[in-house]
């Protein structure tokens, strides 16, 4: 199966026909910052589960329902809310979602019972994901064709950094002022972000002839069936994020056994910022028609990363190198994937992003389940073999589905 010509970089004719000037650097940075702060809300809870269990008088097993509720909200957002960006004026939609997200964060901060907490967490996952993925689609729609990959890459780098920093920030605020302060501060950050977003982001009118909401959601099945680029890049994303979660889900087990604290383990995620920033440049290369070459390099790095990671028990320096390689390869592939799928139908950017991220969700969940099972069966070497196997499978899928001639085709 070969992707259609829609995977190519924007044509010169398309670029000449689009009269829009490049987005100001400050606007691109605002997209990145807003995307990072939005996604962070979804991940603040993970270091706080012990505190939540204590305050609400529930067991360690039951408190996992907090994360489950948040992830359920993420899935619902991808199916029901993110596609709205192809139906409504984007800036107005973003403002409504921002208000709803602030209300959800305040609900969590004030929760006194488990049902209220779970409802608030569901709403945080719902609105945090809708904001994050909506902003990426917004950025793609606002950018001219010749800079779309660069702009999406910057926004996605913000998401990746926000995800990595969320756990560290959450733990620090909780140590200083308790877990409720985490969500109070998060609500204030969203409030401080609201005015710059409203004043600085470009107005994006609703697409002409946009279908009604029921048809909009139903059309996602049509897009998935017709867009070969989405199918291929979605499968690559599924395998890549499975490899990611194979590593991150199992990492805590050997490090805790070695006596490291949760704070120290969480700090390893900060190393991934290096890879996120470097990988963001992949969007520029995709704009230049180098999408397939970037994909090959990214998948090669993803596979190579498992060699130093397998030496973790002998050297923490090897672990750090492996994390950088894993995050660099993964981020470069993620940015390239999104750049390529958005080139086919820019008017359906929200639905395409939502469908692509559903592949991500499936891969992440499968990787986490397989990782802990592998570790329980044969320890860290089994985890690394599993991760390398999935990464190799991703590379083989790319090789089998690359366009005829490969090379610089985007």
UniProtKB/TrEMBL annotation:
The highest taxon in the source lineage is Bacteria
Where, by residue number, does the polypeptide cross the bilayer?
Answer: 26-45, 57-81, 93-111, 117-139, 151-169, 181-198, 235-253, 259-280, 292-309, 315-333, 353-374, 380-399
Print the keywords alphabetically. Answer: Membrane, Transmembrane, Transmembrane helix
Does the record carry Transmembrane helix as a key word?
Answer: yes
- What is the designated name of this protein? MFS transporter
Citing just one GO molecular function, the answer is: transmembrane transporter activity
* Organism field: Comamonas antarctica
Major facilitator superfamily (MFS) profile domain mapped to chain residues: 27-406
What InterPro entries does UniProt report for this protein, alphabetically? MFS, MFS_dom, MFS_trans_sf
Alphabetized Pfam families for the sequence: MFS_1
Name the PANTHER family for this protein.
MAJOR FACILITATOR SUPERFAMILY (MFS) PROFILE DOMAIN-CONTAINING PROTEIN (PTHR42910:SF1), TRANSPORTER SCO4007-RELATED (PTHR42910)
């Amino acid at each position: 199966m070969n992707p259609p010509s829609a995977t190519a970089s924007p044509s010169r004719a398309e670029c000449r026909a689009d009269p829009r000037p490049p987005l100001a650097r400050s606007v691109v940075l605002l997209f990145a910052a807003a995307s990072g702060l939005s996604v962070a809300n979804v991940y603040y809870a993970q270091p706080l589960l012990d505190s939540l269990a204590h305050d609400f008088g529930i067991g360690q097993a039951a408190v996992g329902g907090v994360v489950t509720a948040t992830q359920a909200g993420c899935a619902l957002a991808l199916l029901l809310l993110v596609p709205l960006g192809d139906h409504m004026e984007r800036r107005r939609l973003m403002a409504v979602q921002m208000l709803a997200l602030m209300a959800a964060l305040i609900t969590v901060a004030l929760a006194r019972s488990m049902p209220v907490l779970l409802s608030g967490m569901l709403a945080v996952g719902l609105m945090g994901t809708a904001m994050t993925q909506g902003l990426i689609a917004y950025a793609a729609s606002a950018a001219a064709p010749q800079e779309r990959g660069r702009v999406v890459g910057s926004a996605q780098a913000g998401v990746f950094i926000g995800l990595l920093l969320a756990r560290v920030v959450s733990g620090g605020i909780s140590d200083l002022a308790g877990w409720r302060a985490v969500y109070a501060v998060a609500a204030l950050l969203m409030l401080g972000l609201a005015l710059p977003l409203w004043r600085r982001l470009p107005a994006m009118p609703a697409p002409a002839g946009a279908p009604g909401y029921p048809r909009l959601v139903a059309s996602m099945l049509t897009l998935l069936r017709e867009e070969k680029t989405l199918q291929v890049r979605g499968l690559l994303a599924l395998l890549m994020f499975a490899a990611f979660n194979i590593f991150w889900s199992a990492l805590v087990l050997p490090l805790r056994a070695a006596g490291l604290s949760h704070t120290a383990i969480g700090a390893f995620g900060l190393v991934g910022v290096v890879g996120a920033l470097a990988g963001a440049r992949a969007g520029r290369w995709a704009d230049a028609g180098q999408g397939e070459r970037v994909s090959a390099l990214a998948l090669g790095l993803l596979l190579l990363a498992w060699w130093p990671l397998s030496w973790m028990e002998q050297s923490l320096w090897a672990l750090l190198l492996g994390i950088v390689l894993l995050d660099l390869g993964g981020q470069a592939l993620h940015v390239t994937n999104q750049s390529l799928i958005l080139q086919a139908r820019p008017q359906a950017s929200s639905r395409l992003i939502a469908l692509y991220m559903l592949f991500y969700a499936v891969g992440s969940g499968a990787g986490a389940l397989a990782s802990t099972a592998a570790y329980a069966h044969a320890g860290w070497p089994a985890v690394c073999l599993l991760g390398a196997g999935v990464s190799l499978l991703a590379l083989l899928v790319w090789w089998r589905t690359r366009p005829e001639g490969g090379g610089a085709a985007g």
